[in-house]
């Protein structure tokens, strides 16, 4: 992703159909660049969202925490270290997204909060967090600050925003360092166009090994699709057991190879090191939304025992998915609305 295309996204400008002329865009880009430069050069510290609030939510057990990457802030955000029972499953889900995607975050927060309300035991087992690299727009910095104060579910990593430029490596290694002696049994990286059914996820992880485990939709899933790459779990959402998260944070294999397709590279680190002896391929319960595409080993129609559906790129796909899983069926009747 070029910096200008991500800036387009942050400004909410689609490439096609933009009402703004190219010369205006150039000015905008230059202006934003200048602003970013000013902020970083003149006030580098004021840009650390994480340290703004380093004392704001000194971790109480079970409260959402955000991760800081500076040592000073780390103390203030030490997470709850809960007593660990052998059969407890606790999952940290890091949804990789961009600061500017407010609407998607709002949808995901609502969807996962409703699942937690419906099944309180899942709420205890799963922490959902949104994961960014450095927030470079002053507007986003202000608005994201509000979200952190209100929801406390955002992790800002020390990296520049990218998909395949090491964000996943930074995520796992930051989490490993930020949660020493953590009670998490698994850490999952997920995309922001993936719908996860937390109950199904937790139930299936209960039966998985607690160590040396790698869980997701395994690719390649047949000879036609992405053959002959060595096996890896699709970036839609995959989980590593906590020991592997700690391993990623310290291994040479992962430090050496950060830049590349993130899901393939995670598989590659583990393959090269002979790690992840316990692999859980969750096909056909994890898959891509089909739409009008032909079905394949990684893409098919909804199934009732779904763990996760990927490629929910727009609201209409989300609406279809949420209707299929009866999420909207619980709407209480009222005279005040009709839908
Ligand atoms: C973190 O806390 C410990 C113990 O309270 C203290 O000794 C240490 O100096 C703190 N570190 C930072 C960076 O503030
Ligand atoms: C992210 O922001 C911090 C604080 O402003 C800065 O020290 C760090 O170099 C930035 N990282 C990257 C990769 O830009
Ligand atoms: C983590 O556990 C080790 C060994 O049990 C202990 O020495 C260390 O102080 C703990 N660290 C934290 C931050 O609780
Ligand atoms: C949704 O509700 C309908 C009607 O009660 C039921 O037949 C269907 O199996 C439900 N779908 C799922 C995915 O649970």
TrEMBL record:
Cellular component GO terms, alphabetically?
Answer: Golgi membrane
The main enzyme category here is transferase
Q: Does the keyword Disulfide bond apply?
A: no
Q: What coarse category fits the chief subcellular location reported for this protein?
A: Golgi
EC no.? 2.4.1.-
Supply the Gene3D superfamilies for this chain. 3.90.550.50
**Which keywords describe this protein according to UniProt?**
Glycosyltransferase, Golgi apparatus, Manganese, Membrane, Signal-anchor, Transferase, Transmembrane, Transmembrane helix
Q: Which cofactor does it need?
A: Mn(2+)
How the protein sits in the membrane?
Single-pass type II membrane protein
Report TM segments: 20-42
Q: Which InterPro entries match?
A: Glyco_trans_31, Nucleotide-diphossugar_trans
A Pfam family this protein belongs to?
Galactosyl_T
Q: Give the protein's recorded name.
A: Hexosyltransferase
Organism from which the protein derives: Leersia perrieri
According to the entry, what is the taxonomic lineage of the organism? Eukaryota, Viridiplantae, Streptophyta, Embryophyta, Tracheophyta
